[in-house]
Structure formats: structure tokens, C-alpha cells
Amino acid sequence: MRRVCFAVICCLILLLSNVPAETKIYASANGKCAIPNTKTALQNSSAVFAGEVLSETKNGNERTFEFRVGKYWKGFGKKKIKVSVYESARYQAWFQVGKSYLVFARTDEDRRLRDGRCSGSKLLSEASEDLKALGRAKIPR
After folding, report:
1. What's the predicted TM-score (pTM) here?
2. Is the separation of the CB atoms in 17 and 73 below 8 Å?
3. Taking burial as the number of CB atoms within 10 A of a residue's CB, which of 9, 42, 47, 71 is the most buried?
4. How far is CA 120 from the centre of its chain?
């Protein structure tokens, strides 16, 4: 039993020592999540914007949210954007109609925007440090 515990601890140390310095490890109901800092999340995203969820649709394991974009830092510069989330037994989409978010979304192979568990997206009310780091935003047309 001690050998198993020792091996598990060694593996965890090894695993955590390989996480880049610009990431933070968060424990959540869906497991651990390595969320990059704002600068890295911006670089890794196809679209970064602040917006309110206007509507939600579900098709199988996918939920799609339509956002009214208030401002953006990267992306298409549209007033409305749709972002899809693939749901599984381990992860459920958490965006809610009527609430505002800072969203870091990536483009999939079909050129649709997607958000996932470790993207860095969060409630806009909890994003003050991120907004500071992102700097001046653009207004969509």
C-alpha cells in the first residue's frame, strides 16, 4: 500500500511540475483544469469578447448560445455571435440566458466558435483582472 501511495504522489509531482508557469490549476466539480493566464488565453482563442447570452438551443450533446457582443478584443467584430459547447457526462455548459460573460472561444474544423471547460471564460462580474490585462476593447459594428 505504501508503494502505491508513493508511486501516486511521485506521478502527481511529475505531472504538476510539467504545467507551464502561465497556467493555474483549478479543482472543479468536473475535475482539475489548467486555465491559462489571460495573455495565453487570448493567443489561443479565435474570439475573445464580453457579451450577454440572448438565447440557448440544444441539439443532441451540443448547446449553442447566441451572445450580444458588447465589446471584443479578438474575432469577427459582429454584434451577435454564436458559441457552441459540447456536453458530456463530465461537463455541462454553464452559460445562462440573461447573464454576461467574458468568453474565450476557439474555432473548430467547421469554423464554428466553441467554448470548453478550461478556456478561461467566466462571468463578466468576475473578470476584472482579465479585463485589465486585455486592455482596450473594440466595439462591434
Report:
1. 0.76
2. no
3. 47
4. 4
